Amino acid sequence: MAQGALAHIALLVRDLDKAVEDWTRILTVLDPDQLLEPPVIMPRFGPESDPVRWATFICPGGAEIQLVEPLGEGGRAQHLAKHGECVDHIAFVHPDPAAAARALDAAGVEVTSTELATDDRLPWQGWTFVTEDAAHGARVEIAYPYVAVDGHWEPPADAGQA
């Protein structure tokens, strides 16, 4: 479960299975608590124009590691081809991500949208991003809080989102 506002750091990878294997070895030494539960795996997520599959290691006391593999030839696949494996985004959770995006926009921080994107695979979740330019190279995701339950994400019990 993501604790606090910094939820996860997502890395764009070429081969999700290999990345999970490699990060399992890394976390075995550096943060074994992230291996107490199996990673949450989403076999397909995102818009059809830029689908991905991802795995998120569950961190009981801090920020999580998420690995994202592009499926198809969308924007993330193009970014991966051009730049190689790299940080895809840094995610913060907020009880009202749309309000946070509006506040950032009002403060002069460029966001991709003040409206939240959604996906039918996680219908309760919503997110938007601070742009790469505004965040000096990495997109910053703003999303509703989440918890890992039996290998998938759910809203926290005290969540007020729709």
TrEMBL record:
Domain VOC: 5-145
InterPro entries: Glyas_Bleomycin-R_OHBP_Dase (IPR029068), VOC_core (IPR037523)
Region forming the signal peptide: none
Family annotation (Pfam families): Glyoxalase_4
Protein name: VOC domain-containing protein
